[in-house]
Amino acid sequence: MYLGRVRGTVVATVKDPHLVGFRLLVVEPHTFQRQPDGRAFVAVDLVGAGQEEWVLYVKGREAANALADPFNPSDRTLLAIVDEIALSEV
Fold it and tell me: What pTM was computed for the model?
């Protein structure tokens, strides 16, 4: 799983039939130290995340498998809203 922050929403009047009923959000990837880590992307929201919330997401085949029908075009899927991150020194 990867950490990201919701930066916006995408409105699509026409979607792939596998994605009907799901919100699409713009997410900025971050490291677990909360530093930006790449370009923003669009993800399928399974958890009802809101603007500026921290989220955990999966990508690739795992993203598609997270939806009920695994034969969908999702490349990134949100699976959790993060309440807190606590890192310890190693």
Answer: 0.91
